[in-house]
Protein backbone atom coordinates (compact mmCIF):
# COMPACT_ATOMS: atom_id res chain seq x y z
CA UNK A 1 0.00 0.00 0.00
CA UNK A 2 1.35 3.40 -0.94
CA UNK A 3 2.01 5.98 1.73
CA UNK A 4 -0.33 8.97 1.90
CA UNK A 5 2.45 11.37 0.77
CA UNK A 6 3.12 9.33 -2.36
CA UNK A 7 1.23 9.82 -5.63
CA UNK A 8 -2.48 9.22 -5.14
CA UNK A 9 -4.82 7.31 -7.37
CA UNK A 10 -6.09 9.58 -10.15
CA UNK A 11 -3.54 12.31 -9.24
CA UNK A 12 -1.93 13.52 -12.46
CA UNK A 13 1.82 14.03 -12.71
CA UNK A 14 1.58 17.84 -12.68
CA UNK A 15 -0.54 17.85 -9.52
CA UNK A 16 1.83 15.36 -7.85
CA UNK A 17 4.91 17.38 -8.87
CA UNK A 18 3.32 20.50 -7.35
CA UNK A 19 2.51 18.54 -4.18
CA UNK A 20 6.14 17.34 -3.95
CA UNK A 21 7.31 20.94 -4.02
CA UNK A 22 4.79 21.76 -1.28
CA UNK A 23 5.65 18.66 0.79
CA UNK A 24 9.41 19.24 0.63
CA UNK A 25 9.19 22.87 1.80
CA UNK A 26 8.79 21.76 5.41
CA UNK A 27 7.14 23.94 8.01
CA UNK A 28 7.46 27.10 5.89
CA UNK A 29 5.31 25.63 3.11
CA UNK A 30 2.51 27.50 1.41
CA UNK A 31 0.62 27.26 -1.86
CA UNK A 32 1.83 30.74 -2.79
CA UNK A 33 5.47 29.60 -2.41
CA UNK A 34 4.76 26.57 -4.61
CA UNK A 35 3.30 28.92 -7.21
CA UNK A 36 6.45 31.07 -7.15
CA UNK A 37 8.76 28.05 -7.34
CA UNK A 38 7.13 26.28 -10.30
CA UNK A 39 8.76 26.89 -13.66
CA UNK A 40 5.57 26.41 -15.69
CA UNK A 41 3.01 28.46 -13.91
CA UNK A 42 -0.66 27.98 -14.39
CA UNK A 43 -3.26 29.87 -12.43
CA UNK A 44 -2.85 29.96 -8.63
CA UNK A 45 -6.43 28.72 -8.32
CA UNK A 46 -5.37 25.42 -9.94
CA UNK A 47 -2.85 24.82 -7.13
CA UNK A 48 -5.49 25.68 -4.54
CA UNK A 49 -7.92 23.23 -6.13
CA UNK A 50 -5.28 20.47 -6.23
CA UNK A 51 -4.42 21.20 -2.62
CA UNK A 52 -8.02 20.64 -1.53
CA UNK A 53 -8.75 17.76 -3.92
CA UNK A 54 -5.61 15.80 -2.99
CA UNK A 55 -5.44 16.73 0.73
CA UNK A 56 -2.01 18.40 0.57
CA UNK A 57 -2.05 19.59 4.20
CA UNK A 58 -2.90 16.17 5.61
CA UNK A 59 -0.40 14.42 3.34
CA UNK A 60 2.39 16.91 4.09
CA UNK A 61 1.76 16.58 7.84
CA UNK A 62 1.93 12.80 7.53
CA UNK A 63 5.23 13.16 5.67
CA UNK A 64 6.57 15.48 8.37
CA UNK A 65 5.61 12.91 11.02
CA UNK A 66 7.30 10.16 8.99
CA UNK A 67 10.54 12.17 8.70
CA UNK A 68 10.48 13.02 12.41
CA UNK A 69 9.97 9.34 13.31
CA UNK A 70 12.89 8.36 11.04
CA UNK A 71 15.15 10.98 12.67
CA UNK A 72 14.14 9.79 16.13
CA UNK A 73 14.75 6.13 15.22
CA UNK A 74 18.16 7.00 13.78
CA UNK A 75 19.08 9.00 16.87
CA UNK A 76 17.94 6.21 19.21
CA UNK A 77 19.99 3.67 17.24
CA UNK A 78 23.06 5.90 17.42
CA UNK A 79 22.60 6.35 21.18
CA UNK A 80 22.46 2.57 21.66
CA UNK A 81 25.58 2.13 19.50
CA UNK A 82 27.35 4.84 21.50
CA UNK A 83 26.45 3.18 24.80
CA UNK A 84 27.75 -0.16 23.55
CA UNK A 85 30.95 1.45 22.29
CA UNK A 86 31.48 3.23 25.62
CA UNK A 87 30.84 0.02 27.55
CA UNK A 88 33.47 -1.81 25.47
CA UNK A 89 35.99 1.00 25.99
CA UNK A 90 35.28 1.09 29.73
CA UNK A 91 35.69 -2.67 30.00
CA UNK A 92 39.03 -2.59 28.16
CA UNK A 93 40.19 0.32 30.31
CA UNK A 94 39.14 -1.50 33.48
CA UNK A 95 41.18 -4.54 32.45
CA UNK A 96 44.27 -2.37 31.92
CA UNK A 97 43.76 -0.61 35.25
CA UNK A 98 43.28 -3.96 37.03
CA UNK A 99 46.55 -5.19 35.53
CA UNK A 100 48.33 -2.03 36.66
CA UNK A 101 46.83 -2.33 40.17
CA UNK A 102 48.26 -5.85 40.47
CA UNK A 103 51.73 -4.32 40.09
CA UNK A 104 51.27 -1.81 42.94
CA UNK A 105 52.75 -2.69 46.33
CA UNK A 106 50.22 -1.49 48.96
CA UNK A 107 53.06 -0.87 51.39
CA UNK A 108 54.37 1.82 49.06
CA UNK A 109 51.07 3.75 49.06
CA UNK A 110 50.73 6.75 51.34
CA UNK A 111 47.58 7.16 53.45
CA UNK A 112 46.37 9.92 51.09
CA UNK A 113 46.95 7.63 48.05
CA UNK A 114 44.94 4.88 49.75
CA UNK A 115 42.14 7.34 50.58
CA UNK A 116 42.06 8.56 46.97
CA UNK A 117 41.91 4.97 45.60
CA UNK A 118 39.12 4.15 48.08
CA UNK A 119 37.15 7.22 46.97
CA UNK A 120 37.56 6.29 43.28
CA UNK A 121 36.57 2.65 43.90
CA UNK A 122 33.52 3.70 45.93
CA UNK A 123 32.34 6.14 43.26
CA UNK A 124 32.83 3.54 40.55
CA UNK A 125 30.79 0.97 42.48
CA UNK A 126 28.01 3.48 43.19
CA UNK A 127 27.91 4.52 39.53
CA UNK A 128 27.73 0.93 38.36
CA UNK A 129 24.81 0.30 40.72
CA UNK A 130 22.99 3.42 39.57
CA UNK A 131 23.02 5.26 42.89
CA UNK A 132 24.24 8.81 43.58
CA UNK A 133 27.99 9.15 43.89
CA UNK A 134 27.69 11.84 46.54
CA UNK A 135 25.34 12.34 49.42
CA UNK A 136 24.88 15.95 50.29
CA UNK A 137 22.60 18.38 51.96
CA UNK A 138 19.95 19.90 49.74
CA UNK A 139 18.64 23.32 50.57
CA UNK A 140 15.33 24.55 49.28
CA UNK A 141 14.55 28.22 49.10
CA UNK A 142 11.34 29.92 48.29
CA UNK A 143 7.87 30.41 49.61
CA UNK A 144 5.41 27.62 50.17
CA UNK A 145 1.80 28.48 49.59
CA UNK A 146 -1.00 26.15 50.51
CA UNK A 147 -4.48 26.51 49.20
CA UNK A 148 -7.45 25.15 51.06
CA UNK A 149 -10.67 24.69 49.23
CA UNK A 150 -13.84 23.86 51.10
CA UNK A 151 -17.57 24.17 50.90
CA UNK A 152 -18.52 27.28 52.87
CA UNK A 153 -22.00 25.87 53.60
CA UNK A 154 -20.45 22.78 55.17
CA UNK A 155 -18.12 24.99 57.23
CA UNK A 156 -21.06 27.15 58.47
CA UNK A 157 -22.94 23.99 59.50
CA UNK A 158 -19.88 22.82 61.46
CA UNK A 159 -19.62 26.16 63.27
CA UNK A 160 -23.35 26.13 64.04
CA UNK A 161 -22.97 22.62 65.46
CA UNK A 162 -20.09 23.76 67.69
CA UNK A 163 -22.09 26.81 68.75
CA UNK A 164 -25.03 24.59 69.77
CA UNK A 165 -22.77 22.29 71.76
CA UNK A 166 -21.23 25.25 73.59
CA UNK A 167 -24.65 26.73 74.20
CA UNK A 168 -25.84 23.42 75.72
CA UNK A 169 -22.96 23.62 78.16
CA UNK A 170 -23.92 27.15 79.12
CA UNK A 171 -20.76 28.74 77.79
CA UNK A 172 -22.59 31.77 76.40
CA UNK A 173 -24.23 34.19 78.82
CA UNK A 174 -28.01 34.18 78.68
CA UNK A 175 -28.06 31.13 76.45
CA UNK A 176 -29.85 28.13 77.90
CA UNK A 177 -30.10 25.52 75.19
CA UNK A 178 -31.30 28.07 72.69
CA UNK A 179 -29.91 29.38 69.48
CA UNK A 180 -29.91 32.94 68.26
CA UNK A 181 -33.60 32.68 67.29
CA UNK A 182 -34.68 31.87 70.84
CA UNK A 183 -35.90 28.42 69.84
CA UNK A 184 -34.66 25.38 71.82
CA UNK A 185 -31.79 23.46 70.20
CA UNK A 186 -32.37 20.12 68.56
CA UNK A 187 -30.15 17.76 70.58
CA UNK A 188 -30.93 14.67 68.54
Helix content estimate: 55-70%
The average pLDDT is 82
Beta content: under 5%
Work out the helix count.
Answer: 6
Radius of gyration over all CA atoms, rounded:
39 Å
For the termini, the CA-CA separation is 77 Å
Quick one: biggest sheet? none
Poorly predicted residue ranges: 175-179
Structural class: mainly alpha
Q: How does the overall form come out from the CA principal axes? A: flat
Spell out the helices and strands N to C: HHHHHH
Number of strands: 0
Oligomer type: single chain
Topology record:
Blueprint: H1 13-24, H2 31-37, H3 44-53, H4 56-102, H5 111-129, H6 152-168
Helix pairs in contact: 1-2, 1-4, 2-3
Structure notes:
The protein has 188 residues and is an all-alpha fold. Helix content is 60%, strand content 0%. Among the domains are: 75 residues; 41 residues, no CATH class. Helix 1 packs across helix 2 and helix 2 crosses helix 3.
Amino acid sequence: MAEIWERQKNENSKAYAAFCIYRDMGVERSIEKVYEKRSKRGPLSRLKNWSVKYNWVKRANAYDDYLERKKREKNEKEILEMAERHAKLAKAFQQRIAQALQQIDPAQLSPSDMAKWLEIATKLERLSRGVPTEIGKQEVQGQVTQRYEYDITHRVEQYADIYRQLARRGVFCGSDEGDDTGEPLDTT
